[in-house]
Amino acid sequence: MHAVIYLERTPEHVFAHWRNLVVAYWIGRTNSSAVLRLNTALTRLGEEFKEGIGLIQVVHEKAPAPESTSRSALQAMLRDQSDIIACSSVVSPGVGFRAASVRALITGLVMLARPKFPHLIHATVEETAKWHAEHLPGGSVPPNPRAILRAIRDIIALDGSATDPHALPGAPAYRKQIL
Q1: Domain layout of the chain by residue ranges
Q2: CB within 8 A of 67, min separation 6: which ones?
Q3: What is the DSSP secondary-structure string of 20-83?
Q4: What is the rounded CA–CA span in Å between residue 74 and residue 31?
């Protein structure tokens, strides 16, 4: 069993990791200071997981597009973490013009960052879980797509509006056991 460890939860985003997989759930506005904190967390986790880490960024359907400074911070993060990140994906759900424009923005951002690791955009968490199971270094235990999907769903279910004591600033990291 492995625990989902919540690194940061606000009304705007949730950062967590499960094993060597980091999930950033962008619920509201993506601000550059949050991206910098995510970048710091990736560095710290890269020291723990020498085999490399996976990064999944899930964008809420109603989240606004990141502003210029946030896009620059995201590009820098992908560039800076090229030696740590083994695979990366963005989940941008939805259909229609808005969803297509968000995916186009993400594609442009990634093209400018030019990461050294494989990176894809998916429309569903199911697709990204399966893809990460194929690309994520597993160490002694290969990643299981069902367990990855369960971890992602648990992370996005506990959005920043959670009303438990762990959502309060300064509360200890919340751990949830995942098979």
Answers
A1: 2-178
A2: 29, 30, 31, 32
A3: TEEEEEE-S---HHHHHHHHHHHHHHHHH-TT-EEEEEEE-TTPPPPPHHHHHHHHHHHHHTTT
A4: 10
Structural tokens at position 42: 């990736």
Q: What is the pLDDT along the chain (179 residues), one digit of tens a residue?
A: 578 999 999 999 999 999 999 999 999 999 999 999 999 999 999 999 999 999 999 988 888 888 889 989 998 999 899 999 999 998 888 767 766 677 666 766 666 666 777 888 888 899 999 999 999 887 656 678 999 999 999 998 866 544 333 333 333 343 333 32
List, in order, residues 6 or more apart from 140 with CB less than 8 Å away: none
pTM value is 0.83
Pair of tokens at residue 149: 């999907």
**Class of the CATH-defined domain 2-178:** alpha beta
